[in-house]
TrEMBL record:
<dbReference type="Pfam" id="PF13581">
    <property type="entry name" value="HATPase_c_2"/>
</dbReference>
<protein>
    <submittedName>
        <fullName>ATP-binding protein</fullName>
    </submittedName>
</protein>
<keyword id="KW-0808">Transferase</keyword>
<keyword id="KW-0723">Serine/threonine-protein kinase</keyword>
<keyword id="KW-0418">Kinase</keyword>
<dbReference type="InterPro" id="IPR003594">
    <property type="entry name" value="HATPase_dom"/>
</dbReference>
<dbReference type="GO" id="GO:0005524">
    <property type="term" value="F:ATP binding"/>
</dbReference>
<feature type="domain" description="Histidine kinase/HSP90-like ATPase">
    <location>
        <begin position="11"/>
        <end position="132"/>
    </location>
</feature>
<dbReference type="InterPro" id="IPR036890">
    <property type="entry name" value="HATPase_C_sf"/>
</dbReference>
<keyword id="KW-0067">ATP-binding</keyword>
<dbReference type="InterPro" id="IPR050267">
    <property type="entry name" value="Anti-sigma-factor_SerPK"/>
</dbReference>
<keyword id="KW-0547">Nucleotide-binding</keyword>
Length: 144
């Protein structure tokens, strides 16, 4: 297999794109060897849902699109990032705040840690940001 596999899709910042992002990621990972009916695929599906939802909801219309990028390095590490053009970084809410929403990053961080991975937020050169997760890859990838 190659040293790495990459895939990405750019979608409109619209609520309907969240489902498209989930489907894209799960089908790409299935091509790379991760069966969609596994617990790992379910966890990734939830993480991507939260990342895409944040890109749509919290950019306040200032990012017309968002990009979901996947990279699998040497059958060892999977990186999934969602990039938007809004400059504001996500805020960590205090635990005492009682809200019906705003917990997506907490969920992402917890799920990622449970899988032995980590969450990162980085600025882009264009002034936006990428929120990404890095997870150990435990499924051997099939050649594409």
């Amino acid at each position: 297999m190659a040293d790495h596999l990459e895939a990405s899709v750019t979608l409109p910042s619209d609520p309907a794109s969240v489902s498209t992002a989930r489907t894209y990621v799960v089908s790409t990972l299935a091509e790379w060897g991760l069966p969609p009916e596994t617990e790992a695929a379910d966890t990734i599906r939830l993480i991507v849902s939260e990342l895409a939802t944040n890109a749509v909801q919290h950019t306040f219309g200032q990012s017309p699109t968002f990009t979901v990028a996947l990279r699998l390095d040497r059958d060892e590490q999977l990186r999934i990032g969602v990039t938007d053009s809004h400059p504001r970084f996500p805020k960590r809410l205090p635990a005492a705040v009682q809200q019906d929403n705003g917990r997506g990053l907490v969920i992402i961080r917890w799920l990622t840690a449970e899988c032995g991975g980590r969450l990162r937020v980085r600025p882009t050169r264009e002034g936006g940001k990428t929120v990404s997760i890095e997870l150990p890859w435990t499924v051997p990838a099939r050649p594409v």
